[in-house]
Design brief:
It is a single chain. The protein is built from 1 helix and 5 strands, in the order ββββαβ. It is mainly β. It has a single domain, classed as Single Sheet (Rubrerythrin, domain 2). Strand 1 and strand 2 form a beta hairpin. It binds zinc ion.
Length: 72
């Protein structure tokens, strides 16, 4: 952690399942995809995908942190 100000988001989003992972991660822990994007917006934290309507509507099956929208 540096004191330098950065407008960069602390996470990048998997282009396949939209999972948010730290920048140093090279492979998505949720779906195994290796493609990520910095252009995402909105965060949803899914704790109980079985019972979450939002998770269902976004197609999220595993608990974790996801971007709601991809693309700038
Ligand atoms: Zn993924």
């Amino acid at each position: 952690m540096s004191a330098r100000r950065s407008r960069k988001a602390p996470f990048k989003a998997c282009t396949k399942c939209k999972a948010l992972v730290p920048h140093e991660v090279t492979k998505c822990p949720i779906c195994g995809n290796e493609s990520f994007t910095e252009n995402w917006s909105g965060v949803i934290i899914v704790l109980d995908p079985e019972n979450s309507k939002i998770a269902k509507s976004l197609g999220i099956k595993k608990k974790g942190k996801y971007a709601i929208r991809l693309g700038a």
